[in-house]
Amino acid sequence: METTYFNGKYIPKDEVRISPDDRGFLFADGVYEVIRWYDGFFYDINSHLTRLKRSLRELRINWPEADSFPTIAGKLLNFNKLEDQPAMVYLQVTRGQARRSHSFPSPEVPITSYAYSWGFSPDITSIETGIKVMLKEDIRWSRCDIKSVSLLPNTMSFQEACENGLKECIFVRNGNITEGSHSNIFFVSNGTLFTHPESNHILSGVTRKNILRIAQECGIKIREEAMQENRIRFVQEAFITNTSAEVTPVIELGGNTLGDGVPGPVTKIIRKEFYDEIKVLKG
Ligand code: PDD
User: Do the Cβ atoms of 63 and 96 come closer than 8 Å?
Assistant: First the structure.
């Protein structure tokens, strides 16, 4: 039986009871995090914790247990016997249960918190051979920096990609490429690495941050600048990053083949450095 975390307790998943009045259900009024366990350690859990606390703060959700996220995640792996394999942990925190009203519950009500874990196998084929992705107008709100569970534009767009046989939907806002439905995106143009700067139009990915660091350590020239849609023809390589896809090459973007249509050399160097770092961390 799968053990989950629910409001301070570790209980079987089928005993979790969330009220229909929960603001997560009624308004998507909540935040989430997804962390990766590399059979031995959680990848950069401090950055995930910092981002969780920032998302909570931005939405003015006061969850006093936030600092125990790493402990919760560790206990879930333990209860579910996942410690010796690659795994993921999902955590969601909502503003709690209250009669439906657009204003926040007053006085405050207890926060709803829920987390679960699962054994994870990465999509090795995509990581090795690269993916084809679509391009689409960024239909999301202007606070994409908050890891909110309000993901309808993301899920609608990703579904569209899937139905077209593509592996991600990349958003374009005012001619600038922002990020994917559930990933950040990087471009290589004449040896320089480009990615959208941190702003309210992208989520500051934990993988993004670490890839920028790794690229810098490799001596690769970096520009945190948005790639314009009309400059895609000058791009030789692209890759997406997130907690599950790590560094996944993009070989076709909005119908344009990038470079030779295979993962490019800069992408491969960065991906290798990323895996080398994981190996070192595993010890
Ligand atoms: N998504 N941008 C968006 C919109 C995302 O949803 C994600 C992650 C990222 C990459 O963030 P990170 O490197 O910290 O995983 C960027 C997660 C994986 C998800 O929704 O499942």
Answer: no
- Domain limits for position 199: 124-282
* Predicted confidence (pLDDT) at residue 283 exceeds the cutoff of 90: no
Q: Are residues 108 and 136 in the same domain?
A: no
CB proximity list for 21: less than 8 A, separation 6 or greater? 97, 98, 99, 100
Dihedral, CA atoms, 11, 14, 16, 17, nearest 10 degrees? -150
- Provide the β-strand partners of residue 192: 189, 221
- Of all residues in the chain, the percent with pLDDT exceeding 70 is 100
Does residue 140 sit in the same domain as residue 271? yes
261-275 pLDDT per residue, tens: 999 999 999 999 999
Residues 83 and 147 in one domain: no
Same domain, residue pair 173 and 276: yes
CA of 89 to the centre of ligand 1 (A): 13
Token pair listed for 201: 């139009």
Summary mean pLDDT of the chain: 98
Predicted confidence at residue 168, as pLDDT, reads: 98
Q: Is 147 a catalytic residue?
A: yes
Among 182, 209, 274, name the best residue to mutate to test ligand 1's pocket (greatest count of ligand atoms within 8 A of Cβ).
182
**How many structural domains does the chain have?**
2
Neighbours of 227 (CB within 10 A): 25
CATH number at residue 234: 3.20.10.10
